[in-house]
Design brief:
The chain is built from 18 helices and 21 strands. It is an alpha/beta fold. Helix 4 links the parallel strand 4 and strand 5. Bound molecules: pyridoxal-5'-phosphate.
Length: 491
């Protein structure tokens, strides 16, 4: 920040002196002050030049300048308001004043910086190589060597037997639901605290989602609530066709406990690991604990192909079926013959190239996101009433999103107020997923709670997701920490 005293001049200064001041500071600006140090107007090089052209001499004083109203703002102005003010008046500087009207600093457009977003794509160096190879060899199709290699590389990385690359995580979930035989009227248990894409594929097949609450220890599906749901089902004489378990924000659910319950009833698990690629549960990669697992490579996920997904399983037959259904379900016949309704769900060879490059930097992306989380936690450690999404002993989260709850009684702020205030500082934070059992579209669906009060409702009421991109600079992370401290410390 420029020393404000060096920028000031009185009306008695000459135009020559004013030019010297403007030259000597990097700011290309001079502040014309009255005898009490209050701002009369700002003066630029151009203002001086125009005054000279109008006939003034270099030795004339700044009295020669026409009085104009300069834009100023109070020192406490938010980044967003400052930027809007600069845009509206087409200026690149904004003098900020104290209560007495004295300039305390000059805000420059570049000080404001770009907005800090929740989670943006972060390319490595190898992606373009694989994409170029696809172009060079004219493999511009929803199959090809990059697709085969990407499937193999993911399967090897997570230790799954087989993998099918598809057009989205949602498509992978849909195929899983279809392959497990969900038919109209069938029930499927599904984590309630998740993105709608976890549950929608159940409905694509005419099934009925039944939502299972979270446990406080991981924010993921509560084994106790799952047990309750199975007890109710058994008492009523039915069983779900499948259980979709979500690993929220990169944090594994307690898979051993959940899978044991499902195994007891002979019901297969689909692990929705769309958010948790690179995370681990008891040392093993997230996603491999059910009959099938799903990853997403949407633009906001930890690695991305711009859009894409992967279905994994140890059962080769299931993955073969997935590939078959994903390529329009063409029977092996010389003519076009179909015995089933298929989909066009395969991943393009170009995008698989992006995925292969991204996979090479996955480990670094996990480390970077965990570092963002740690910087937030450390930087806000002394503020009471903030609770980060817990990481149980058995979890190594990829911290896809750093999520926390804010106790309004302790902090004096609701989650939505904090989100609003961060937005004023051009920082994008988001509410935690709204639980599926609270969604209008699923209002008729059943829900089983962890205890007397649904845990997920409380997380939703109080939760926010912080900007968590692996490409955030140290300066950006500090900006977020400072903005949060500013809110809670009343600065
Ligand atoms: C992103 C996401 C999906 C859907 O993945 P897409 O690739 O966007 O279709 C499914 N489930 C969860 C939990 C997700 O976060």
């Amino acid at each position: 920040m420029t020393d404000i005293l060096k920028l000031g001049a009185r009306r008695s200064a000459t135009i020559r002196e004013a030019m010297a001041i403007i030259n000597s500071t990097g700011l290309q600006l001079l502040l014309l002050l009255d005898d009490d140090g209050r701002l009369l107007r700002t003066v630029t090089d151009g203002d001086l030049r125009r005054t000279l052209l109008a006939g003034a001499e270099l030795s004339d004083t700044l009295e020669a300048l026409p009085p104009i109203e300069s834009v100023t703002a109070p020192d406490a102005i938010t980044r967003k308001a400052a930027l809007e003010l600069m845009d509206r008046h087409e200026v690149n500087h904004l003098p900020l004043t104290d209560e007495a009207g004295r300039v305390v600093r000059v805000l420059e457009r570049r000080d404001i910086g770009p907005p800090i977003l929740l989670s943006t794509p972060h390319m490595g160096e190898a992606e373009l190589h694989y994409v170029e190879e696809a172009f060079r060899t004219n493999w511009i199709a929803p199959l090809g060597p990059n697709v085969d290699a990407f499937e193999r590389e993911i399967a090897d990385l997570v230790g799954a037997g087989h993998a099918a690359a598809v057009s989205s995580g949602t498509a992978a979930l849909h195929l899983a639901v279809r392959i497990l035989g969900v038919k109209p009227g069938d029930k499927v248990f599904c984590s309630t605290l998740t993105f709608a894409a976890s549950a929608n594929p159940i409905v694509y097949e005419g099934g009925e989602p039944v939502f299972i609450d979270s446990e406080p220890g991981s924010w993921n599906m509560s084994p106790r609530a799952l047990e309750r749901a199975f007890d109710a089902a058994v008492a009523e004489g039915w069983l779900p066709k499948a259980v979709i378990v979500v690993d929220l924000y990169g944090q594994s659910a307690d898979m051993d406990a959940l899978v044991a319950i499902c195994d007891r009833h002979g019901v297969p698990v689909i692990e929705d690991a769309a958010e948790s690629l690179g995370a681990r549960y008891k040392g093993r990669p997230s996603g491999v604990f059910g009959r099938m697992g799903v990853y997403s490579f949407n633009g906001n996920k930890i690695i991305t192909t711009s859009g894409g997904g992967m279905l994994i399983s140890d059962d080769e037959e299931l993955i073969k079926q997935a590939r078959f259904l994903a390529t329009q379900a063409r029977d092996p016949a010389p003519h076009y013959q179909h015995s089933q309704i298929g989909f066009n769900y395969r991943m393009s060879n170009i995008l698989a190239g992006v995925g292969r490059g991204q996979l090479q930097v996955l480990e670094q992306r996990v480390e970077a996101r965990r570092a963002v989380y740690e910087a937030y936690r450390d930087g806000l450690a002394d503020i009471e009433g903030l609770e980060w999404q817990p990481e149980p002993d058995w979890s190594y989260s990829n911290r896809w999103l750093s999520a926390l709850t804010i106790d309004p009684e302790v902090t004096g702020f609701t989650a939505s107020e904090v989100i609003r205030r961060l937005a004023e500082e051009m920082i994008e934070a988001r509410p935690v997923w709204k639980p599926m059992h609270l969604q209008p579209v699923f209002a008729h669906c059943r829900h089983f709670a962890h205890g007397n009060e649904p845990v997920s409702d409380r997380i939703f009421d109080r939760g926010i997701c912080m900007p968590s991109g692996s490409n955030m600079s140290l300066g950006e992370i500090t900006r977020v920490v400072d903005a949060m401290r500013g809110i809670f410390k009343g600065r």
